[in-house]
Amino acid sequence: MERNAYSYLSPKCSAVKAPEKGGHAVQANEPIPAGEVVAVWGGRIVNAAQAAELAPGFREHNIQVEEGLYFAPMIADEESDYVNHSCEPNCGLAGQITLVAMRDIKAGEEITFDYAMADGDGYDQFPCACGVASCRGNVTGDDWKQPALWDKYKGFFSPYLQRRIDKLRAGK
């Protein structure tokens, strides 16, 4: 696994083996204060058709950044690509590719974000295994549509999803 070849992962974090989470996870090795940058993903922009054709190891680590556009990793197995989904995350998006701590994170905690903050298409749907009491059960490209999440993650949605939310709130 290459550390930080194209992406940034805070030196306060590291990837760990987590078979129950699909293979890996990222954990905090020391405290991370709210607002601190935890990861910045690097990669290349691909459209929906190109994203669907990505090889395993790349397809599951892309992130939607705009309508019909995705940010795909340049290499497989960068540590920052192992940030998993949680329905009760400790991180959120600041822009399209930067992950920041939403609250203070303790050493030993897994670094997570809710994929509803970024995913607005059905390209990446799966049963949720986050294990929190409020787990939604499935992760879908429609999760961002839940009004309860709009307030919960205010300021942490990808800009294109925030535009969608603003239109829905305005009744457009």
Characterization of this structure:
This protein has 172 residues and is of the alpha+beta class. The protein has a single domain (8-165), classed as Beta Complex (Beta-clip-like), CATH 2.170.270. It contains 3 helices and 13 strands. It has helices at residues 48-52, 147-152, 159-169; strands at 8-9, 13-18, 23-28, 37-40, 44-47, 63-66, 69-72, 84-85, 91-93, 98-101, 112-113, 126-127, 138-139. The strands form 5 sheets. It has a 4-stranded antiparallel β-sheet with strand order 1-4-10-9, with no helix packed on it. A 3-stranded antiparallel β-sheet has the order 5-7-6. Strand 2 (13-18) and strand 3 form a beta hairpin. The longest helix has 11 residues, at 159-169. It is globular, with a radius of gyration of 15 Å. The model has no long low-confidence stretch (mean pLDDT 92).
Question: Whole-Å distance between the termini?
Answer: 46 Å
Structural class: alpha+beta
Q: What amount of the residues lies in strands? A: 25-35%
CATH class division: Mainly Beta
Total count of domains: 1
Mean pLDDT: 92
CATH superfamily heading = SET domain
CATH architecture: Beta Complex
- Main sheet properties: 4 strands, antiparallel
For this structure, the CATH topology is: Beta-clip-like
Keywords:
Beta-clip-like, alpha+beta, 3 helices, three-stranded antiparallel beta sheet, 172 residues, single chain, four-stranded antiparallel beta sheet
